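Most newcomers find our protein records easier to grasp once they have seen one. To make this concrete, we reproduce a full record directly below:

===
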Amino acid sequence: MSGIRPPGLYRKESRQSVEKEFQMSTISKSKQAINAAVIAVFWIGGGNLFIGILGLFRFSGGGIDIGISPWLVIGVGLAYLGLGFFVRQKKSIALAVAIVITIGLLLLTLVNFCQSIPSEGFPLGIGGSVLLLAFLVLMIKGYNAMRELESYPINK
């Protein structure tokens, strides 16, 4: 008789274990989304740094013409890299700032795209905007995951 459990007790334990498993699965998915957001912020920062350095070579006779000051692009890249370190520490305000800056960059790119259509026919800078938009989606998902992860008492 010692091996038999009352039916109500068994269901309660089972329900608790299912809820705990669901909570752990949600936490795992949230951490994956946050990691993807961290990677996106670092990629944007590294990409801007790389393009800014290529723009610096333009002044010395080689490189590419990026259309704006390469020092500004390098500054934006360094800002993203700095934000990336704070996002990696799960600071939601840093990710929110990165999202706002990315939206601003996308709007500037859109304005530049619309202004260059009459003069150039079809501008080539649209690929970077698509990539930036994909990174923006990852960052928004990461921000939502951070907010959701803050609601679980296991992480406090």
